Amino acid sequence: MTKVHEEPPVLPTQQDEVAAAGSELIGGPLGRHARLGGHWLTPVRVVILVALGMFALGMVQKLPCYDWAWFQGAGSQYTHACYSDIPHLYSARGFADGLIPYFDRFPDGDPKYGDMQYVEYPVLTGAFMQFASWLTPGGGSIQHREQLYWMVNAGMLMICAVVIAYCVARTHRRRPWDALLFALAPAFALTATINWDLLAIALTAAATLMWSRGRAVLFGVFIGLATAAKLYPVLLLGVLFVLCWRAGKWRAFGAALLGAAGSWLLVNGPVMYFAWDGWKRFYVFSQERPIDFGSVWLLISQRSGNPLDGANTYATVLTLLLCAAIGLLTLAAPRRPRFAQLAFLVVAAFILANKVYSPQYVLWLIPLAALARPRWRDFLIWQTGEVMYFLGIWFYLAYTTSGDKHQGLPVEGYQLAIAAHLIATLYLCAVVVRDILLPERDVVRQDGSDDPSGGVLDGAEDVFTLAHMTKAPQDAAPSQGQRVEWGADLRD
Q1: Is 485 part of any domain?
Q2: pLDDT in tens, 461-472
């Protein structure tokens, strides 16, 4: 019997009208028996090359800031939409002076926290920042060193982008071309070097790949490391919990949980022990941070004139409610949702309910969107809203820093940009939920697959659903043999 992973890859130009139309730029859709560039130019390598090209374009987009705008006051870097935290924090967080994050304080100037403060990033991100500072040559002006620091970080982040492209292309064995959604995403190019988010995203993508191969412990290890770089990846353990509950795969969930806890403690434990005050800074800052740019709470506050002093509680409650709704959806759906679908929904819920939405947060969702809903039309609708927000926040900041010139986007325009981001993200969430409720419309399952990113859950029977409240076979889910038969029927 032919194994699933030996079947030919699914060609998006044969399933997606937008992909087919776009392929006309390079000669039209591939034929069924066409071979792409011989043995070397595989789909995975093409995806990586495209991702590298888009990353390079994003670096070019930052060129006005690299040359002068980062160092000529705030306004120019906003009007050119090329702002990045990286060069500014090289000096502002003490790296230029040889300070060690979590152990050494830097001058903060915020009266709320005192004159000196610690780095406000999780431990693994702080280590990434520190390592980049060690690679940055000393000497010369501070401007030159900030430029070099950004270049060093860009090189390291480019490696992270390659890891993401590889992992997304390999997660669904028969659908490597879906990773082009990540590689060609406009928001990926625009936001890749704003901050250090690609590190956590690369680790999360590696975790997703490990789970798709049934390696629960390694999934947990990578999730633990990703959570040590950014908080949001821990949400994927919640996704796994509900899916394993429905399928009765408690051993796999336990292995993943132990792997995550072990790797997280391995990274955080020494810093917690030797530099507790520095370690906890990120968590205290996240808890006490007021509502900020891009959030639904800022939009409500600006429109109503209410400062929303309880926004932290509102955001926490809304996040919990949305996650609970996703859990109920998982247990009530006619067919067990795919892992990537739920991962996208829970991270999107966290973003939508958060007190702040920095423009680079879109990167958290792009790889998950490529796996959850690999349809170009819906993906591009969402990306349009995100690009509008990317431009909106910089032009709004230009307006607020231009004084009497009023150069940029007034507050009403910025509110429209926030609304565009919120509506576009909700739209993509809606079509993913529709795919869960109507699994026959899920493009990933149209070849007879169950859950290519599901690991041990792929093809497993359900033991608990809200519909039966008891052991109930998942009649809708095909077995491994059935999936091969359906795939063969599609090919004949």
Answers
A1: yes
A2: 999 998 766 444
